[in-house]
Amino acid sequence: MNCSAGSRMRRLLMLALALGWVPVARAQIEGQTVSGFRLPEYDEDGQLKQQLFGETATFLQDGIIKLTGLRLEIFSDGEVTARVFSPGCAYDSNRRRAASQEHIRIVARGAVVTGDGFAWNGDNEQFQIFRNAKVVLDAQMDRGLVEPRSSPPADPEPPDPE
Q1: CATH number of 5-140: 3.30.930.10, 3.40.50.2020, 2.60.450.10, 3.30.110.10?
Q2: Whole-prediction pTM value?
Q3: Where are the domains of the chain?
Q4: H/E stretch holding 74
Q5: Angle at 155 (CA atoms; ends 154, 157), nearest 5 degrees
Q6: Model confidence over 76-134: pLDDT tens digits?
Q7: Residue 100: helix, strand or coil by DSSP?
Q8: Residues 66 and 54: beta-carbon distance below 8 Å
């Protein structure tokens, strides 16, 4: 995105307002689009909780935002623990929910989840994949839980007859 720093800040502020992170009359931004954005979210201690990246965000009625080129990074203790990718979704900022019929890919430590169509509930952090759900686990993830322990001791030798 080629724009001045002031223009970029104005666009990011519009996105933050539309997502409900800053109160505003949403009618002021309906129909507008923000391009090439990054929107971080911090917890009460100032730690990065997640950051949303996207190609575009178009503000629709009733607090709905149409997002394209979605990438979400989720953090724990300052490290990315999961990344979510989708070509697009609709985000309801009033209800903290997102949904799409598009493909979704979730990459987390030790697993990749993919599918088509999804719904996310921000209140309980629940993700539902509608079709073609597939989970691929890292073969080494919990290797110690399935590896056989050392073989059990053999039966003792019978005593030698004297």
Answers
A1: 2.60.450.10
A2: 0.69
A3: 5-140
A4: strand 64-76
A5: 110
A6: 998 999 999 999 999 887 787 889 999 999 999 889 999 999 998 877 878 899 999 99
A7: strand
A8: no
